[in-house]
Amino acid sequence: CLLSRxxxxxxxxxxxxxxxxxxxxxxxxxxxxxxxTIFHKxxxxxxxxxxxxxxxxxxxxxxxxxxxxxxxxxxQKTCWSFKQKVMLAIGKLTETDKKDxxxxxxxxxxx
Length: 111
Known about the structure:
Helix content is 42%, strand content 6%. The protein has helices spanning 46-58, 65-72, 76-91, 95-99, 104-108; strands at residues 11-12, 22-24, 30-31. The chain has a three-stranded antiparallel sheet with strand order 1-2-3, with no helix packed on it. A hairpin with a 5-residue loop joins strand 2 and strand 3 (30-31). Helix 1 (46-58) crosses helix 3 (76-91) and helix 2 (65-72) crosses helix 3.
């Protein structure tokens, strides 16, 4: 919940919609595990999303959405949309981070 953000122990692990969801103790809002990450509102399996993130990052965006669709068995438009999200996150990296193979981890948390 945006009103309670930053107020200490407002969020606690309680029974929410999923086992790892957090619930605000004031307004009882359930926050997703993927909130504030590149995987927020991702409607396909997270394993495929991580794999797509790695493919796009290591090939520096040169892989097409058609190829992603073929490899991951997802619709082309789904791959295109998520690739755009990844490319936007890559654009926010510094030039030295773009060349660092381990910088894919910095793409997960949205800056």
